[in-house]
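USER: Write out one fold?

ASSISTANT:
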Amino acid sequence: MQRKKIAESSKGVGKPKVGGKFEMVDQEGRPWTEQNIKGGFTLVYFGFTHCPDICPEELDKMSRIIDLLNGPPTSTTAPIPPPPPPLPTTTSNPDPSITPTTTNPSTPPVSTDPNTPQPPRPPILPLFISCDPARDTPSVLKEYLSEFHPSLVGLTGTWQQVKDMCRAYRVYFSTPEGVKPGQDYLVDHSIYFYVMDPDGDFIECIGRQHTPESGAKIIKDHMSDWKNGIKLN
């Protein structure tokens, strides 16, 4: 009952909406929008690859939560490909230097044919959103996330696209002023996991005070309120 109150209160009148439209690319250079997270539960974390301690700690926790909910990874586990969008859209390439790939030898290809069965979606889809697009290119994200969990999907984009997504998720982030090219710097940002339901709506935050076990239980309890992508009364 308490989790239902939390879920409903996050959507109440007068409450700031968390989540919404976005246009990014993943670590393979493939376009992602808010439509890609619908159809199942998603765990979203904002950070940056040059983070010295907090992000690695939180990604280790995220990896443990993934294993508790999805089962431990196997030698063939790979990042889940994004499902095809409901309708063809024209999305501008966030970075002209990035050439989107159409296939990935380490993951099953995604067919745009609606009659072709798509790879099954895991119980929880983990997303790492970069707050540092100047340094976190798709290739950098791919190498960085490979150190944590094979199911992690990393998203990046232009400065404006990242700023817009952070605003949509009510995420605070800032970079120091006057940074010169090649100079190292840290990004200050919010430290939360955002739990999104199959409709793409925000349910609850998981903070640093939560253990992997308590975080997984929170998500699993919310999952019990849904069946086959439909919310139970």
Remarks:
- Helices lie at 2-9, 54-70, 138-145, 159-168, 212-223.
- The longest strand covers residues 41-47.
- The CA atoms of residues 48 and 223 lie 28 Å apart.
